Each structure stands twice: as structure tokens, then as C-alpha cells.
TrEMBL record:
Pfam families linked: DAO
Highest taxon of the lineage: Bacteria
Protein name: D-amino-acid oxidase
A GO molecular-function annotation: D-amino-acid oxidase activity
Keyword Ribosomal protein: no
Cellular component per GO, a single term: cytoplasm
Length: 381
């Protein structure tokens, strides 16, 4: 079992590549990160989100429905924010291939907003039709980190071109998000990530084996040239209770501000958002546009009868944001990301099947309290 598996076993989405590219040097930091005030009274919200997972990866393809051309753009698992711009590029390319200039987008989550903006930039007039808008969409309940291969597909279930398509989507998104850095409200920023262990990385604890024959597909090594390397911190040089720590940097999406900015940019460019719920594909005949990009996320399961979508449940306990606390920590089965719009604390399970095929969207307060209590143990007293 290698270090990649160890990290994944710790429920650390997106960190496997970080450790694989770890630098040999170790670093003593002069000042540690601000400790998080992990007390029950600071827990202000508990949310649940369902990842729309498809073994074959996101569905980005065209379908004729009556006299409409529908471009599907859904099923991004735990990677929707990270892949959104690249996925939009593919979907919009298909939508506008025959010169269409009037585009309807269904859905106003991460995927719908980025598809709508991408179509506008390509010269289209765009209307979004949607049941819900931020903050009531599932995208608002995401962790908010760069995680382009988190529960994106299963090994052996994807077609031969998937890896290349995924890489292009990830690279396009990664570079587009860089243009959101340094903006008022910090919709996107680079922040530190601490990966903590009780034993030296690559030794000791191993991934808990499952008896499932399937394996999630991991492709992040393909992006090694554009993502930072991690450094090992000297034991005792950091404020955490576990002895061993690695430090890396990753993109954080401050989702509240990012969603507001995407929505505003869309409206300023002349876009319209129309509240509308579709109950079956035949409802699309109500739209005047002939070309429709379908960005309904987990909602596609009911609307399109797509039972290849499997819900993967994830719950977040939200702690009050703290000035100066802008970083993430991963230890054991818990992750914490201190964002500007809340400190998100998440139980990630012993393996990646945690929450798989669980469509329960009811928050579990007792589990949230337990996560916060565990987080409080991360720092040396
Ligand atoms: C706990 C958790 C943590 C996550 N963390 C990350 C992360 O850190 N980084 C990352 O990249 N990804 C993350 N993800 C994944 C990411 O959140 C999703 O891939 C992404 O939000 C999907 O966006 P979407 O626009 O497809 O779906 P949604 O946000 O669900 O939007 C769907 C839209 O379609 C509309 N709609 C649906 N059905 C209908 C209908 N019948 N009629 C009209 N409108 C309809 C909805 O109202 C909504 O506006 C996480 C997911 C979970 C569950």
C-alpha cells in the first residue's frame, strides 16, 4: 500500500497527488496557523449535500428532445466546482456548434452559472431557467476546495477518451479560477492545507480495505505540473497535536462570494434568470430557445430518469469564521477548511465510499457535534 492509498484512506480528497509530489526538504514555520475555536456554541449551521455521481463520469453529450437540442452537463460527483469552467467549455462548444445564438440553461448551480457565462462570452444571449438559485442550490453546500478528481468516475467504467477530456476540463477550470484571485470578497484564493498524521507519512496506518471490486478513478497526477508540492514540517514546529504534518497550498472557493460574483457577472452581461420547474423532458417545449444546456445536477436523476446517477451524501458542520484563519487541515477521517463564509468541518469516512448511495438530506446534528469535538483535539493545548 503506497502513500497515495494511505492519504485516500484518511478521507483526504485531492491530497494524494500533493504527497506524491512532496519535496524532500522539511520546513520549520516561524508561526503556526490560528487555532480554530471548535466549540459547540460556534456551530451555526449543519448542511447536507448530495454529490451526483456517475460511474462513467459526467454526462456531457447532446440529445434531441422533440424539436429541441439538449446538451447535458451534469453528474460531476465531488468535483463540480473544480471542473465547472472546463465542463462549460465542452457543453457550450456543442450547444453553439451550429451557430445558435440564443441559449437556454436549466439550473443555476456551479455548473449552470459557469455554462451560462461561458455561452455569453462566446456571444450568445442566455436565459437561465431554474427551480432554485443560490443559496438554495446544492452547490452552496460544497466544501469549496480544488478537488477535480473527487468521486468523478470509476476505474474501468469510463470510455477511452475520458482521461484526456478530464485533464482538459481541469486545466481550463484551474486557469479560469486564477482570474478570480485578488478580487474584493476573495471569491477564490490560495490557502494552506495541513495534512496531519501520527506516524511518518507513508508508514503506519493504512487505508481500510473494502471488499468492493470497483475503485474510484484518480487522475490528479496528470496535473502535477500546475499544482504546488507539499513540504514536510519539522515535528514540534507546528501547533498541532499529531506529530507529523505536511503543508501544501490549494485553491479555496469562498462559495458565497463566488456564487454572488458569477450571478452578478451573468446579469450585468444581459443574462436573465427565470424561476421555472421542469417535471419531464416534454416541459422543454415551453421554452422559446431551441438549444438548451441541461445543468440540473442531482435533479437530473428525476427529471431525465437517469438512474446512473448515484447520490453520495456529505454533511458539513459550519463554524463561525475567524479573522486570520484561512487554511485547511486533514487528520484521520476529518477535514476542516476555514473559509471566509464559514469554517467547514466534514467527516469524510475511512474510505471514499462514505455516503455512497445515501440520498438522506436530513442534517445529523449529533454527528456534527461529534465532528466539532474531534476538531478541537487537533491542537496542542
Ligand atoms: C458535501 C459536498 C462537498 C463538495 N465539495 C466540493 C469541493 O470542495 N470542490 C468541488 O469541486 N466540488 C465539490 N462538491 C461537488 C459539487 O458541489 C457539485 O459537483 C456541484 O455543486 C454540482 O453543481 P450543479 O450545478 O451540477 O448542481 P446543483 O448545485 O444541484 O444545481 C442544480 C440546479 O438545477 C436546478 N434544477 C434541478 N432540477 C430541476 C428541475 N427539474 N427544474 C428546474 N430546475 C432544476 C436546481 O434548482 C439548481 O439550480 C461537493 C459536493 C458535496 C455533496
Amino acid at each position: 500500500m503506497d502513500r497515495r492509498h494511505f492519504l485516500r484512506g484518511a478521507g483526504v480528497a485531492g491530497l494524494a497527488g500533493m504527497a506524491a509530489r512532496a519535496s524532500a526538504t522539511s520546513l520549520a514555520l516561524p508561526a503556526g496557523p490560528v487555532p480554530i475555536r471548535a466549540t459547540p456554541d460556534r456551530l451555526f449551521r449543519v448542511t447536507v449535500c448530495l454529490r451526483a455521481f456517475r460511474a462513467a463520469g459526467p454526462r456531457i453529450e447532446a440529445e434531441e428532445v422533440g424539436r429541441k437540442k439538449v446538451i447535458h452537463n451534469y453528474g460531476h460527483g465531488g468535483s463540480g466546482w473544480s471542473l465547472s469552467w472546463g465542463s462549460a467549455e465542452l457543453a457550450v462548444g456543442m450547444a453553439m456548434a451550429n451557430g445558435a445564438k440564443e441559449i437556454a440553461v436549466i439550473g443555476a448551480g456551479a455548473i449552470g452559472l459557469t455554462a451560462a457565462l461561458t455561452a455569453q462570452l462566446a456571444g450568445a444571449s442566455v436565459t437561465i431557467y431554474t427551480k432554485e438559485q443560490f443559496p438554495n442550490v446544492r452547490s452552496a453546500r460544497a466544501t469549496g476546495t480544488w478537488s477535480p478528481d473527487s468521486r468523478i468516475a470509476l476505474e474501468g467504467a469510463v470510455d477511452g477518451g475520458f482521461g484526456d477530456r478530464w485533464e482538459k476540463m481541469a486545466r481550463t477550470s484551474f486557469s479560469t479560477y486564477q482570474s478570480y484571485l485578488g478580487m474584493e470578497g476573495d471569491p477564490v484564493e490560495w490557502t494552506d492545507r495541513y495534512i496531519l498524521t501520527d506516524t511518518p507519512m507513508g508508514e503506519g496506518r493504512r487505508r481500510k480495505e473494502t471488499d468492493r471490486p470497483e475503485k474510484f478513478l484518480h487522475l490528479e497526477d496528470r496535473l502535477a505540473d500546475i499544482t504546488p508540492r507539499s513540504v514536510e514540517l519539522e515535528p514540534g514546529s507546528h501547533p498541532f497535536r499529531p506529530q507529523y504534518a505536511r503543508l501544501n497550498s490549494s485553491l479555496t472557493f469562498n462559495v458565497a462570494d463566488l456564487a454572488r460574483r458569477l450571478t452578478q457577472d451573468f446579469l450585468i452581461a444581459g443574462g436573465r434568470i427565470v424561476p421555472m420547474t421542469f417535471h419531464s423532458p416534454s416541459d422543454l417545449s415551453r421554452l422559446r430557445e431551441k438549444v438548451i444546456i441541461n445543468c440540473t445536477g442531482y435533479g437530473a436523476r428525476a427529471l431525465w430518469g437517469d438512474e446512473s446517477i448515484v447520490p453520495v451524501r456529505g454533511q458539513i458542520a459550519w463554524l463561525i469564521p475567524q479573522p486570520g484563519a484561512h487554511y485547511g487541515v486533514y487528520y484521520g477521517t476529518l477535514s476542516m477548511l476555514a473559509r471566509r463564509d464559514g469554517i467547514v468541518v466534514q467527516e469524510t469516512g475511512e474510505d471514499e465510499w462514505f455516503g455512497y448511495n445515501d440520498a438522506n438530506e436530513e442534517p445529523d446534528r449529533a454527528a456534527a457535534d461529534a465532528s466539532v469535538a474531534t476538531l478541537a483535539q487537533f491542537w496542542r493545548s
